[in-house]
Amino acid sequence: MSEISTKPYMLRAIYEWCTDSGYTPYLAVKVDASTTVPMEYVKKGEIVLNISFGATSGLKMDNDAIRFHARFGGVSREIYVPVNNVMAIYANENGQGMAFEPQLGGTDASAGQSSPVVDEPSAPVLASVPSIAPAPAPVSTTKPDDDASPDDDNEPPRKGGRPTLTRIK
Question: Looking at domain 7-128, which CATH architecture does it have?
Answer without folding.
Answer: Roll (2.30)
